[in-house]
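Hypothesis: this fold can be encoded by more than one sequence.
Test: take the C-alpha cells below, design a sequence, compare later.
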C-alpha cells in the first residue's frame, strides 16, 4: 500500500528526509518514531502528495506520487499535527462540509457523517459548536473528518500530541479499531509508549535517516546486542553475583535497588541455561529468573543519539 525508494527531500543544505526506503502492506499499523524535527512530517506530506520530493520515488495504493496525485488523495486520509476548524459550525455541520468537499451526495452525506461520529465516540457532541470542544475531542473530530471518504491509507501526524492521559488512551483505542478494519496506518509520535501496544511495525528516524524499520519483534532483535537477565535469589545477592561474574559468557553483573541481579550476557550468547544451573548447584534458591524485555523506548535510546535537523 505504501512503498518508498530512496525518497529524499532537501531544504537548501538541510536534508529533511534522506534516501528512505520503506514498504507497508495492507493492514499494517506503522509507528513512525522520532523527535520533533527528525523528518516525520516531511515524509508524510510527501506521501500525501502535498510536497514534492527532490529525489526518489513513492507509491501509495500502487500509484506514483508524481503521476497520479489526485488518485492518491482519494485513497488517503491525512491528519496533520495541527489543523484548522471552523468555529461558527456545529460538529455535524463541520463534517458535512468536508463530506461535500469529497463529493459525497446529500442522501448519503448525513448517514456517513453520523457513522463516523459513532466510530470516534462523538455522537454526544454532534450539535456542539466546534470551538467548544476540548483538545482531545477536536482530535477525534479531526480523525472522523479524514475517514469520511473511507480512505485505505491513513497518515496521522502526532494525533495524540498535547492530549491528557485519558484522551491519549482514547486515541490509541481508535487506532486499534482502525487497524482491525484493515486500513494501512502510518502514525507518528515522539512519545514512545503511545505506539508500543498499537503498531505491528515501527520505524525509527533521526535527522532524516530511517535508522531501523520492520516488525516490532524484528526491530528489537536488530537493536539488542546482548541478552539481559533479571535474577533474584533468596537472601543476599552478592554471592550469586560473584558466581555469575566469573562465568566466561557473562559480560557484566549488577545489583539494582530491588536487590535483583541484572546479568548481561556477552554478544551472540543465546543459551543462558547455565545461569540457573550454576546458582542451584551452589545452593542458591531462585526467586526470579526472566529475560528482560526490550521496549520501544529503550530500543530508541540505544539506537539514536537525539539528533534533530
Amino acid at each position: 500500500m505504501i512503498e518508498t525508494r530512496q525518497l529524499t527531500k532537501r531544504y537548501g543544505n538541510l536534508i529533511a528526509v534522506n534516501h528512505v526506503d520503506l514498504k507497508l502492506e495492507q493492514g499494517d499499523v506503522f509507528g513512525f518514531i522520532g523527535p520533533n524535527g527528525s523528518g516525520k512530517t516531511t515524509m508524510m506530506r510527501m506521501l500525501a502528495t502535498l510536497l514534492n520530493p527532490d529525489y526518489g520515488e513513492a507509491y501509495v495504493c500502487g500509484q506514483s506520487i508524481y503521476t497520479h496525485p489526485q488518485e492518491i488523495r482519494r485513497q488517503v486520509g491525512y491528519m496533520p499535527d495541527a489543523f484548522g476548524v471552523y468555529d461558527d459550525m456545529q460538529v455535524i455541520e463541520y463534517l458535512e462540509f468536508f463530506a461535500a468537499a469529497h463529493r459525497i451526495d446529500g442522501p448519503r452525506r448525513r448517514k456517513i457523517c453520523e457513522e463516523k461520529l459513532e466510530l470516534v465516540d462523538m455522537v454526544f457532541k454532534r450539535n456542539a459548536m466546534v470551538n467548544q470542544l476540548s483538545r482531545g475531542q477536536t482530535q477525534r473530530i479531526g480523525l472522523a473528518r479524514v475517514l469520511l471518504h473511507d480512505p485505505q491509507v491513513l497518515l496521522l501526524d502526532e494525533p495524540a500530541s498535547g492530549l491528557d492521559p485519558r484522551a491519549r488512551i482514547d486515541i490509541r483505542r481508535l487506532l486499534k479499531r482502525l487497524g482491525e478494519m484493515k486500513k494501512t496506518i502510518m502514525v507518528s509520535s515522539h512519545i514512545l509508549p503511545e505506539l508500543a501496544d498499537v503498531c505491528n511495525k515501527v520505524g525509527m528516524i533521526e535527522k532524516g535517516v530511517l535508522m531501523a524499520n520492520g516488525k516490532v519483534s524484528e526491530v528489537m532483535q536488530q537493536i539488542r546486542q546482548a541478552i539481559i537477565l533479571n535474577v533474584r535469589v533468596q537472601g543476599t545477592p552478592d554471592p550469586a553475583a560473584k558466581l555469575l561474574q566469573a562465568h566466561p559468557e557473562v559480560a557484566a553483573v549488577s545489583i539494582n535497588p530491588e536487590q535483583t541481579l541484572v546479568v548481561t550476557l556477552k554478544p551472540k550468547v543465546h543459551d543462558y541455561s547455565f545461569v540457573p544451573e550454576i546458582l542451584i548447584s551452589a545452593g542458591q534458591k531462585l526467586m526470579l529468573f526472566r529475560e528482560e524485555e526490550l521496549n520501544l523506548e529503550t530500543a530508541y535510546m540505544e539506537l539514536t543519539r537525539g539528533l534533530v535537523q
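The chain has a mean pLDDT of 88. The first strand starts at residue 2 and ends at 11.
Hypothesis status: open.
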